[in-house]
Amino acid sequence: MLERENSSTAIVDAGDILLSAKAKYKNCDYQGAIVEYTLAIQFHPQIALAFCCRGDAYYKLGKETPALSDYNRAIELDPKLTIAYYRRGNLYSSMKNYAVAVGEYSHAIELKPDFALAYSNRGFAYRELYGEREGVADWQHAAQLFQAQGNSEQYQQMIDLIDLNTSIDTLSGMLF
User: Fold this and answer.
1) Most buried one in 23, 75, 110, 129, CB count within 10 A?
2) Is the distance from CB of 162 to CB of 140 less than 8 angstroms?
């Protein structure tokens, strides 16, 4: 049993620590979340999700190297942890390494074929690599998934994005 002196409530197990870390993360206390995730990892070093979540907190703080290290460790511990590939894709995308990001999003999609956000973000990475039109197929698929999942806000964002890119493509064709 684990207890922390500097907390007003006793944290007694990894689940409690992870809940505390998640709450800090949700309140944008990323440094506090890192401390909590690190504590959970110290006592339970095989929890892949703790590494993944700590990596995301590092990512939010702009600390790319420890974020990447944590995503890698999460995947080593659990090669089927879809969210780790997705988040690593986001990291590579933010580093403008779009080709690697595409691979990460593709791996997440292989593991979870209905992962609409992975399709959406892969579409953005394709666009950065190959131009405006290249993301549309993934955005269309993401829109279908968002609609099927009842996420009307994300669905509409994808439709608007597709319409915008289709309009740009049409206008470009008229000008040249």
Assistant:
1) 75
2) yes
Q: If you search the block for the tokens 């580093």, which residue do you land on?
A: 95
What is the value of pTM for the model shown?
A: 0.86
What's the Cα-to-Cα distance from 20 to each of 5, 35, 158, rounded to whole Å?
A: 15, 10, 34
- Asked if 11 and 3 count as a contact pair (C-beta separation under 8 A), the reply is yes
* Residue 121 near residue 156 (C-beta atoms within 8 A): no
* pLDDT tens per residue, range 55-67: 999 999 999 999 9
Cα torsion 7, 9, 10, 14: sign: negative
Residue type, 102: V
pLDDT of residue 90: 98
Q: Estimate the share of the chain in helix, then strand, then coil, as percent rounded to the nearest 5.
A: 80, 0, 20
Q: What gap in Å lies between CA 176 and CA 162, rounded to an integer?
A: 21
